[in-house]
UniProtKB/TrEMBL annotation, chain A:
Keywords: Signal. It comes from the Bacteria. Residues 98-133 are annotated as: Disordered. Residues 99-108 have a biased composition (Acidic residues). Residues 1-18 form the signal peptide. This is Uncharacterized protein DUF2796.
TrEMBL record, chain B:
It is a multi-pass membrane protein. It is found in: Cell membrane. It holds the Pfam family FtsX. This is Putative ABC transport system permease protein. The chain crosses the membrane at residues 6-32, 264-283, 289-310, 330-363, 383-404. InterPro entries: ABC-4/HrtB_transporter (IPR051125), ABC3_permease_C (IPR003838), MacB_PCD (IPR025857). Residues 19-205 form the MacB-like periplasmic core domain. It comes from Yoonia sediminilitoris. Keywords: Cell membrane, Membrane, Transmembrane, Transmembrane helix. One of its GO terms (cellular component) is plasma membrane. The keyword Secreted does not apply.
Amino acid sequence: MKQTLSLIAFVAAIPAFAQETRQLDAHEHGVGMLDIAIEGTTVAMEFHAPGADIVGFEFKAESDADLAALDAAIATLRSPLDLFVVPGAADCTVTEAQAELESDEENEDHGGEHKDDHAEDDHDDHGHEDHAEEAGHTEFHAEYRLTCDNPDALSKITFAYFETFPNAQEVQVQLITSAGARAFEVERDTPILDLER
Amino acid sequence: MTLRLALASLFARALTVGMTILAIGLSVALFLGVEKVRTGAKASFADTISGTDLIIGARSGSVQLLLYSVFRIGNATNNVTWESYQDIADRPEVDWIVPISLGDSHRQFRVMGTTQAFFDHYKYRQGRALAMSDGVIMDDLFDTVIGADVATTLGYSVDDPIVVAHGLASFTEHKDQPFRVSGILEKTGTPVDRTVIVSMEAIEAIHVDWQSGAQIPGQSTPVDVIRGMELTPKAITAALVGVESPLQTFALQRAINEYPEEPLLAILPGVALQELWGIVGIAETALLAVSAMVVVTALIGMMATIFSSLNERRREMAIFRAMGARPATILGMLVFEAMLMAAFGALLGVALLYAGLFIAQPIVDSAFGLWLPIDAPSLREVYVILGVVAAGAIVSMVPALRAYRLSVADGMMIKS
């Protein structure tokens, strides 16, 4: 997503390179995505949610109130066990938690994954605001790593997330365990994910 | 007493009762059979691929990629270039990667180009590996390994020469390069049974003299020359990937999906299968609903036979009443008879189902590659039997209540 936005910025800026790849991920308001991978006692989670779900807006925050809302949301997203509540018996602790807002402005830290050097070069020289508005969407992105001493007790996850963020309607969950990959949909009405189903 | 009476009464009308029981039995067998086929098909599909973390192909839909790469249903929208394949294979998250190249055929069977790694990493039915029933894995350029169904259908044995055709259902065959059967795989119950496996280089070799889909006239490269050629594949259809650690699967998937040089798609096979069930789920439900309606129809048929029996049993009922049976006893007896019929019908249905399974299992397996397991009756079957008996009791209430209301005198009078 980020790389794409930077690519758009780049493509718009230099027409000579206009044949550069352009792509945008699907973006659906109300629907977040949670990927969970479990190996031994390590649980890795990655969470994506549209800005609209978390803070209710996707424009560039300028007012103090909006900026404060963003900060508060990121702080909340940094404590995964309050949002995605696992059974106490699993004995999980958070070893790593990152959360950020993915938009055009905050691209620098993600350059490492990206092969196109030039996409980054022009990054600071152009009016980002315009492009951000063109793309029109922002996404929150969080990565967590947990250690669960008793992973067998991970039978369900309660999505307190829906109480915290009233705009969120649904989370699409993908789960990878040693048994393979499965997908679930967790909705606001039934915010409990039964992993043993 | 009631049981004896009811049984005797049913025996007395053996023919109509027998037909009713048969109708209920057939409908129950159909209902349970549909469910068996449904779960069997699901298990068969789910068992086809196991141990593969990601499937990579050209960007299309996840279900489509799954269908053409694993089930050989449909065709790829695009190929994946060899450069991209190498790029992905070099990533640190990748534990193993197996390329797959489809698009040629031998008779009605698909030819799949792959590497030796396919035999090590392709797993089916919860981690079972492929095994050779005869011969060895190909190690020469023109060696092929064929699936069990290919061998039985075409009567091939090890060392037989075969000719591989270009494209599917094509008239032009690659006559110049005679392939040889080097090994035959054991039956797996997966699409591998219906596949001719050759090396990636062989797929290139087949196409040496072919440009833009047609053979260049008068040009035919001798086999020796082909052997000396550089036969690095230019493209593959799909690739199966195993990751080092499940924790890295999502990161690798995302990296492939955002691969800037080529539009690629990486899917989790299990999730794509679930998506597929989501699509066929509607048809499944419809099928199940139709077969449930057949059961209902059979039960209503039973109600009709009870109604018509009321007329012929007017005297019988009247005698019972005259001897002191209360109207409630009559009602109870009729309902009980109906429940017995429904129970016999349901049991007959289960028996028919198992008989049918024993007969159909090998036929369905060879015709559709669908293995229908014969298990002991599950709780589900018990519920269905109980449900049919309960439904039988409910529908029989209608004629029974009618009998309940008829007066003694009504039965005693002689109707002209």
